[in-house]
Amino acid sequence: MNKYRTHNCNELNKAHIDKKVTLSGWVHKKRDHGNLLFLDLRDNFGVTQCIVDKDNKNFSNLEKVPLETVIKVDGNVLKRTKETINNELPTGEIEVQINTFEILGKTRELPLPVFSDQEYAEEIRLKYRFLDLRRKKIHNNIILRSKVISFIRKEMEKLGFNEFQTPILTSSSPEGARDFLVPSRLNPGKFYALPQAPQQFKQLIMVSGFDRYFQIAPCFRDEDARADRSPGEFYQLDIEMSFVEQEDVFKVVEKLMVNLFKNFSKKKIMFEKFPKIPFQESMDKYGTDKPDLRNPLLIFDISEIFKRDDVKFEIFKKLFKSGSLIKSIITGNTNTKPRSFFDNIDKWAKEQGWNGLAYFSFEKDENNKIIGKGPIGKFFSEESLLEIMKITSAKIGDSIFMSCSKETEIYEIMSKSRNKIAEDLGLVDQNSFAFCWITDFPIFELDKETSKLGFSHNPFSMPQGDPDNLDFSKPLELKAYQYDIVCNGVELSSGAIRNHIPELMYKLFSIAGYNKDAVNEKFSGMINALSYGAPPHGGIAPGIDRIVMLLAGEKNIREVTMFPMNQNAQDLMMNAPSEINDKQIKELNLKILDKNK
């Protein structure tokens, strides 16, 4: 028999009344009622209320035991009185009367409270992460993460996938973010790179004749932190399949996601067959390629209206003539909204660094004539208002918010405004998950700083159309079999049908500025393998961290990551990154430069 416990702290119930038990765990809470001491004992599984009365020789010693001390108790299971039953606990109908106890692990003074989930300074939470992880919410989040990964593995096996592990030490490649580099001791002056993703390896697995691969893969990117992105490392469900088209990948991922989210959440899934939205349509309707489809508001381009002579809003007309676009959002009926609702949104827009949002409402006057009611409504004739209503499907009682800006800025403005307006109107269904596919991404894009062509997505993607008859004279018009999966405005993953034709790969890379020698050098393993009979293949890699973040209802990825770094990519608990000693520097043939010289 285990000397530390006969039961876990979530197991005891009415069936154990009058039995002798042994429990071990952390002292979670104490309540001293003078003649009776209540002590909540916590382990990984739950909490059990223990009691000791003043006549017990251990009473005074237990009174002095600090919270978070690890103890073992021996005692008898008692039935709680009716008025003290706690229905929120599995052990809420019983309590353990302590006969003896033993301290297993002493504690120092706590730098943060464990018994509550109150907000606490991030620096303290990360430095003492082992304490932070004892707290109920984040502890449960990490357990959830484990169960999600286990569920995914089982589902992938059911779907006919095999799990393989790919190398961690590999070569540097232009994936888009900075590499983490590892100096080679045996090859002086040369460096490994930690994989930004197992992209090339999983394609090589398909070339090797394996049909369906997956891996819960660690990925490493030297990029800045965001709420939905950890600095340094993250995990993804890496998937690749042979002899497939785009729709085959969609079917597998949709089935997995629906089963996964149904299993771990009571929220409804709005579309079990995920909508497919072309990239440009997503930008035009939602202002982003990561739309939150729980938000019903749409964006409309009303630029052409400002060519009319009966539109007198001269500020926008002047900007339109200089190349700006005018886009708008229709709110739905806002008759009950006070003026402050509109002014607050305009104020918010100015706080973002924009020029605010122009607005008015569609109404009728006493002569049944359509008018624009609001600060700029007077600048529009009835005919122009009717034209706007036709373009936007607006109705009497609806309101319109509009912004005028260059194409490079207008999408961000409208996307954020769409979210803000819907939030203030309470339009977003918080009790649902809305998945969608964003498809038909352009292969190339212009770099805003250099005006040079570069890959917009994954450089290994297959162009749409007949590979033997593609028109390369207009590269910005070329689209690829590339896709993103998005849920509630969060991008879970990018994926693509891969370009498995070496000659076509050379051509596309040449458009992006890489000659044949550069491709052979950077992607020698890949390009060599593809020349020995490669199957058509494709895949995707949903982020584990973001999936768990959605299921846990968290807004920051650190709340579902066991040992995250801070915003500066530092592990405060382990003091990483750290300096290395002179011997290590010499072994690696490195020289540390003084950045101050």
Give the secondary structure arrangement, pairings included.
Layout (H helix, E strand, L loop, with lengths): L19 E13 L3 E7 L4 E7 L5 H6 L5 E10 L14 E12 L16 H6 L1 H4 L3 H23 L3 E2 L17 E3 L7 E3 L5 H9 L4 E10 L10 E11 L3 H19 L3 E2 L6 E3 H8 L12 E3 L12 H8 L3 E9 L5 H13 L6 E7 L5 E4 L8 H11 L5 E8 L1 H19 L6 E2 L1 E5 L4 E3 L6 E3 L26 E6 L2 E8 L4 H10 L4 H7 L1 H7 L6 E4 L3 H9 L29 H6 L10
Parallel strand pairs: 3-5, 6-9, 11-18, 12-19
Antiparallel strand pairs: 1-2, 1-4, 2-3, 4-5, 7-8, 9-10, 10-24, 13-14, 14-17, 15-16, 15-17, 19-22, 20-21, 22-23, 23-24
Helix pairs in contact: 4-15, 5-14, 13-14
The total count of strands amounts to: 24
- The structural class is alpha+beta
Gap from first CA to last CA: 66 Å
Approximately what portion of the residues adopt beta-strand conformation?
Answer: 15-25%
How would you state the average pLDDT, rounded?
A: 94
Q: Give the oligomeric state of the chains in this entry, treating copies of one chain as homo and distinct chains as hetero.
A: single chain
DSSP helix fraction:
25-40%
Largest sheet: 8 strands, mixed
